[in-house]
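Q: Sequence in, structure out?
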Amino acid sequence: MQENIIKILKPNENEIGMRLDSFLVARLNSSRNKIEKMLQKKSIKLNNTPPKKCGILLKSDDEIQILTDISNPPLNTHNLEIPTSHSPLEIPILYEDEEILVLNKPINLLTHRTHDKDLQYTLVDYLKNHRYPLSNLGDSYRQGIIHRLDKTTSGAIVIAKNNQAHAILSEQIKVKTMGRYYLCVITPPLKENIILDYPIIRHPKNRLKYLTSQIESAKSAKSAFVKIAKEGEIELIGAKLFSGRTHQIRVHLAHLNRHIIGDFFYGYKGKYTKRILLHSHLLYLTHPKTHKAIQIYAPLDSLMQDFIKQNFKNTSWLIPPLFFDKTQDFKIPLDEIFTQTFLSCHCESS
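A: Exactly. Output:
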């Protein structure tokens, strides 16, 4: 019986430690039942061998082959990570004018690629396919991109439509008049609100990972974390960055021995595998042309919003969630929470 490999998948930095079946459900946009049947039929191989268990935990060097028997209909590859002329996504627009575009980036979408061999579909591909005008101050991979979000992080991201807007917003990032507040769910809870000022460096043994370090070559990094709602051993917190290092929130929380739920790469040991519960919830900036202050909230996706509703429904909130007009989607006033917290109390710092 002849078999063809129609796709090869490798876990990215955020998927290391995931169960094989959960990884495939997410990557192939398929049901768990269908994935289990494919594994039973040996239509999927792990490192060239049919896996004996669905729950094998993935390692950084694992390679998953998706197979199809030529006598059967091929697997639908519409949602695999194959660059196409048209994006299968429809990303919500939070704000748009002639200068800037603000989108609510979904999970599992890379902001931009970094080299020619990276064939993952990216946000930049999406923008080009939808014919948005984009700045070109950066390299060809980063057209329009002023700041990035990790592949597994959702939420507000701003795009520059021209070079003047790009230059002005980039300067705002440097002087910290533009920024983001994040929501994340962690375990175990923080002892108290904290401002953490601790340098970050690339991990010496895993080039995809970062850690805190006091050596001279480490880059300065400062984050603030605020407790919002606690239930048992999980806690909803707000995070604000004063610097923009790669994986900064995740690395600083790991330094505190706290882990974002779903983030196996940085030490989470629980059972939740649907996504990393980290979201860029509030974006603020000064408009590059009108010079007006703008605040834009990005609604949470259904996975994260459902988790919060289900797990914090009997919780006492620092400030109760508000609701968007005409919807049941809630927003959490992070700017108010941070202002109230850090102006009214002496918080631990490190």
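The two ends are 62 Å apart (CA to CA).
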